[in-house]
UniProtKB/TrEMBL annotation:
Keywords attached to this entry: Cytoplasm, Transferase
Name of the featured protein: Thiosulfate sulfurtransferase GlpE
Active site: C65
SMART domains linked to this entry: RHOD
Domain Rhodanese: 17-101
GO molecular function, one term: thiosulfate-thioredoxin sulfurtransferase activity
Location relative to the cell: Cytoplasm
Catalytic activity: thiosulfate + hydrogen cyanide = thiocyanate + sulfite + 2 H(+); thiosulfate + [thioredoxin]-dithiol = [thioredoxin]-disulfide + hydrogen sulfide + sulfite + 2 H(+)
Amino acid sequence: MSEFKHISVQQTAELIEKDNVVIADIRDEQSFAAGHITNSKHLTNGTLHSFLQQFEFDQPVVVVCYHGNSSQGAAQYLVNQGFEQVYSLDGGFESWRKQQPFSTDTATNSTAKND
């Protein structure tokens, strides 16, 4: 794979159900603490090296940012590092939190789907 792909909230939820995906959240510390996809990894410049060492290049990775813009550059970076299946979450965490449950540093929150 030479480029990342886009992925919807629903497709990401399906990958999570299969337990076959790494969610890499690139937002700032406070935003991540306030809410993130359950079991996601907080990917920062400081954690990048360990992230690259921890996961296999053939494991799917979904990159999450605020609105789905910054994640595209980070997703392409991971592709360039050798990851084979990299996705950018369309709409970012803001779309996720409107449609799916999420976690905070202290508890799990449920959000109703907004139609």
